[in-house]
Amino acid sequence: MSVANSSRKPEAADIAGTLLRILFAVAFATAGFLLGRELYDRTLSLHIANGRIQLALLIAVPVIGALAGVLFTPYAQTFFESALGATERSIERMSPSQLAGGVVGLITGLIIAFLIKNILFDYITFVGQAGVYVAAVLYLIVSVFAAYLGARVGAKQRVGFVEGADAVNAQVMKLIDTSVIVDGRIAEIVQSGFLEPPFVVPRFVLHEIQLIADSTDPIKRSRGRRALDVLAKLQELAPIEISERDYPDVSGVDAKLVRMARDVGAKLVTNDYNLNRVAHVEGVAVLNINELANAVKPIVLPGEEMHVAILREGKEPQQGVGYLDDGTMIVVENGRRLIGESTDVVVTSVLQTVAGRMIFAKAKR
What pTM does this model have? Predict the structure, then answer.
């Protein structure tokens, strides 16, 4: 069944492309024919007295115009399809509220352009035929500009069309911190559906990521480029709004994020422990990726046994440190002598913090 469906999709695309090509060919051929005839009537026929030549040009010029229109068809179709594809990709990245706002803004912009035409452009037509052409071109330019501006502004207003609790949830924005993008796990979380749009990334956060990607330190540069890849993946998974809101009177990206989250009523998505605490003090709701990761880790109880490799010495004398597969640190008493070896340990206690989970254990031998 899947093979049959996949074979039908290219056929449907080919049929649509062929119909579009025919439509463009007819439209441009007709336009070329009419322009050719207009050119003959207004220019050539006035300067040629020979009747046979006039008859030949009467037939040839419109036909040449029609052929020119047909030859122009592939270029027009390519431009149209590329513009249509770009528009479709932009719409797919928009949330329903953004799409509704964009439609309202688009219609408003066209109405404003129509009113401007009726008020101002009609006076230009008094000049004569040239004034009519100038007014038509100006009306086209103003209409495109007003429609584009209206759609952009309207999309940022996020017109809501759902009621009750669903409307409230749909408008709760998630403000993404730099640390989350650099960490990278947010892409998998969004893909799994545990974190839903709308997502907002401020321009000053993008600037900070760009500075990291352009760093002279190879490690920082690698992390910054990976963050840009994560951001690109996020844009494929869900619509992301790039906010131009900034606070020149506030210094530091963290302070700006807290201020912005408080002003727009957004939840702050972060991995930064200090930013997490400051946001709580300021009354900003925080979604901490580390807390989510700790919540889904397997529960370890005192008295359980596990096998762990001791990798380095701990802070206290005779301590050894190892790690589980999920990155959880295990501090082993009297484990310093076992550095570089794997051994069985018994869990003595578990310490849970916002920064992560630590397991304390003692070696069985």
Answer: 0.44
